[in-house]
Amino acid sequence: MKNLNIKIIFQMMGFLLIFNGLFMLISAGVSYYYKDGATEGIFFAGIITIMAGLISRFTTKNFKKRINKQEGYIIVTLGWVFMSLSGSLPYLFSEAIPSFTNAFFETMSGYTTTGASILNDIESMPQGILFWRSTTHWIGGMGIIVLTIAVLPLLGIGGMQLFAAEAPGPSADKLHPRITDTAKRLYLIYLGLTVAEAVLLKLAGMSIFDAANHAMSTLSTGGFSTKNASVAFWNDKPIIHYIITIFMIIAGTNFVLTYFAFRGKLNNVFKDEEFRAYILNIIGISVIVALIIYFKADVSNLATETQLIDHPMVYGRLESAFRHAFFQVASVITTTGFVSADFTVWTHFLTILFFILMFFGASAGSTSGGIKFVRHIIMIKNGILEFKRSMHPSAIIPVWYNGKTVSQDIVFNIMAFVILYLIVFALGSLVFGLLGLDFITAIGGSASSLGNVGPAFGQLSPVNNYDSLPSLGKWWSAFLMLLGRLELFTVLILFTPYFWKTGKF
């Protein structure tokens, strides 16, 4: 603790606040363009945030330009908290969300790309506020800290320690030896895909405002929509569903593989075990869901009577079943949380299936939450090998992944993560139950918050929202969102005595 570099922590908090404030000013510009009445509130929130950041920077000017692991973990966790606290100001100052608890919940849900909302009438919100809401998704999508380390050379600070703390999976593949160059390449891909989706959605029939907001929410696997009915608002435009589905799948793919795909190295993509498992699961589960919807579920809400009469081939039962199955499976697995229909009424079997999918997660190195496929793969492989080890206790039988052996340390780390994830899920459910939530709502809210999914079950189903939670429930849900987004260890390690007692971490 005595060697903790406090000044560099405040330097980084200051930089993040300035960064956050600048994006608020962009949202204020959007508000001014639409004359929505929220311009002044968003603008002053941005100015105050920038001023707070400047004060934090200037009062800690003489700092050692070195970050060790201990400071890296603190900066990552506090970064998300400070961003969420300051990010609540546009809601409060514009009075779009006058309650601090609700404003903080909405902001944390945005930055953690969970997509859970307390808003009962989204379409009545000022456009500037909706744009800010989607912006919090976009900022959080690839990680505030990863974006920060792209500009750390301006401060003369190396960012490897921060990248290790923020890395969204058990391994952080690099595109380039220098971590700052890696971050820049990742964000160029991120920005390019966001623009591409926005253009396609505009051409498919969305307004430019809706297209920009949904593109930011999709690439961040967030799920905030500008419509009360989410993407179900465009059920009469199947092409919009397909565009969003494809980009959700891209967003759930390891961005390193996406980079290789852009470079024409498709072999690197298709030989990746996690990518194959990810795609095959989406396709296979979507087929199962589509068949059950087609034969068992009520699909009358998936296409209107006029659409069925005028376009029987396009809006028929089979197409509707496949489209909504494909959309919802991709949405839940990638933890995006967009809704094209209420999947909780598609038979009890599918309700249980979608609950299980909340524990999948997409790929490591993507913007999604959840456990991630690579962990599931290694856990399953190690479990199978235990049968061989029981027959040959003296044999050394390693786990193989992508043609390489996985060290036992990584296997143990993954096992610890999964066990801890399930323990936190159980505790999360118990706390929700203690606060008065029924069984279905409690386990659904815990799984969804921890997995950064958004819609859940019971009182938190896709046709409802999180406004019904008691105040303590909203704070608990926000804490679970933070834990899930930073993959447990980054946050929980701060609560261990060892972390603070160690001089050099």
UniProtKB/TrEMBL annotation:
Any single Gene Ontology cellular-component annotation: plasma membrane
Subcellular location(s) per record: Cell inner membrane
Residues that hold K(+) according to the record: 113-114, 222, 335-336, 452-453
InterPro entries: Cat_transpt, TrkH
Main location: membrane
Annotated source species: Aureibaculum algae
Alphabetized GO MF terms: metal ion binding; potassium:chloride symporter activity
Membrane topology: Multi-pass membrane protein
The organism's taxonomic lineage, starting at the top: Bacteria, Pseudomonadati, Bacteroidota, Flavobacteriia, Flavobacteriales
Record family assignment: Belongs to the TrkH potassium transport family.
Transferase in keyword set: no
Protein keywords: Cell inner membrane, Cell membrane, Ion transport, Membrane, Metal-binding, Potassium, Potassium transport, Transmembrane, Transmembrane helix, Transport
Name of the molecule in the record: TrkH family potassium uptake protein
Recorded superkingdom: Bacteria
TM stretches of this protein: 12-35, 41-60, 72-93, 138-165, 186-209, 239-262, 274-295, 345-365, 410-435, 475-500
